[in-house]
């Protein structure tokens, strides 16, 4: 049986990455909306069109965690994240080195400009996590 996580990752792989339309955080926002959360992506879509504009936008909202907090999802201990929850990863690349992702159970999946990446949990540092509603359809 397929679930919303599988369907979301399939959709991410089938649609082109585009800043301001289908980028990393807007994709996380869309995922939150289809799982029953607040749809904040609609208010941000089309507000920026380049990587630098996206970075500025995210910075204005205190990072990915600030944007995800706008959804009202309950924040949880990063160690308690399970399949379907939303997380922020520290990429180790400095002050702009955070990215939103979905916990896949044994790992995380993030939508980046170069494509969807999946990484085992033992290789990532999760800095923030939020409990997402039911992920089974």
Structure at a glance:
By secondary structure, the chain is α+β, with helices and mostly antiparallel strands. Helix content is 31%, strand content 23%. A six-stranded antiparallel β-sheet has the order 1-6-2-3-4-5, covered by helices on one side.
Task: Describe this structure as you would to a colleague.
With 137 residues, the chain is α+β, with helices and mostly antiparallel strands. The chain contains 5 helices and 6 strands. The chain has helices spanning 4-14, 24-34, 41-44, 51-60, 63-69, and strands at residues 75-76, 86-90, 98-103, 107-112, 115-120, 125-130. It has a 6-stranded antiparallel beta sheet, covered by helices on one side. Strand 4 and strand 5 form a beta hairpin. The longest helix has 11 residues, at 4-14. The radius of gyration is 14 Å and the shape is globular. The model has no long low-confidence stretch (mean pLDDT 91).
Descriptive terms for the model:
globular, alpha+beta, 6 strands, endopeptidase fold (from Nostoc punctiforme), 137 residues, single chain, six-stranded antiparallel beta sheet
